[in-house]
Each structure stands twice: as C-alpha cells, then as structure tokens.
Inverse folding.
C-alpha cells in the first residue's frame, strides 16, 4: 500500500527514536520543570523521589558488578568488586563527590583488565 512506504524511508528509525524514546522522556522533564518549583525540597514526595532514584542507581551498579555483560563478564568477580569498593572509597574520601569515585573505579577496572587478566 502506498501509505506505508514512509516506514521504509531511511530516516524512519531516527524519527521513531525521537517519537518513542526522546519525546516521552522530555515530557516528564518538562513536567518536572513546570511543577518542580512548587515542591519543597524537604517534602515527603521529594524524599521519596530521591530514595527511588538512589535505589535505581544502586540496582544498576549491582547489576554491573554481579551480572555484567560483554567483556566485563570475563573479568573475575573479585576484580569487579575491588574496582567498586575502590571507587566507593574515593567517593567518600573526596567528600561524597561522584565524579572522582567514578573515575577511580574506571581506572581500577582498566588496570585489572590490562594487567590482571591471564592472556592480556
């Protein structure tokens, strides 16, 4: 049918990503900006939002450490845990700033993958 030829267009996947991926995300961001100024930072809802966000980050980190995919899965669990704990120690030592902890964890993983793996 002539009406469905647009789906075969080379630009269609990009339009689909915007419509199905970016637009729903941006709608929530716009709503957050619109209504976020009216919420107190110490309100019950904001504490709940922070708790959920923290739980999601913790879940992603645990998944990366305990159930990784790709090349990271070839690295022994002890190395992944060591990189996590080292990055967390730097995070705490740097006054709870995330970026130094992330960089330290990444560097520890790179060192482990480069020098700690047999056959590397």
């Amino acid at each position: 049918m002539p009406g469905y030829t647009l789906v075969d267009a080379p630009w269609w996947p990009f339009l689909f990503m915007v419509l199905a991926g970016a637009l729903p995300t941006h709608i929530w961001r716009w709503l957050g900006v619109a209504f976020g100024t009216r919420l107190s930072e110490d309100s019950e809802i904001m504490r709940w939002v922070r708790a959920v966000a923290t739980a999601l980050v913790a879940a992603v980190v645990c998944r990366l450490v305990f159930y990784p995919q790709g090349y990271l899965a070839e690295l022994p669990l002890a190395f992944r845990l060591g990189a996590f704990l080292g990055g967390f120690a730097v995070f705490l030592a740097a006054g709870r700033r995330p970026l130094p902890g992330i960089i330290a964890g990444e560097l520890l993983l790179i060192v482990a993958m480069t020098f700690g793996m047999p056959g590397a």
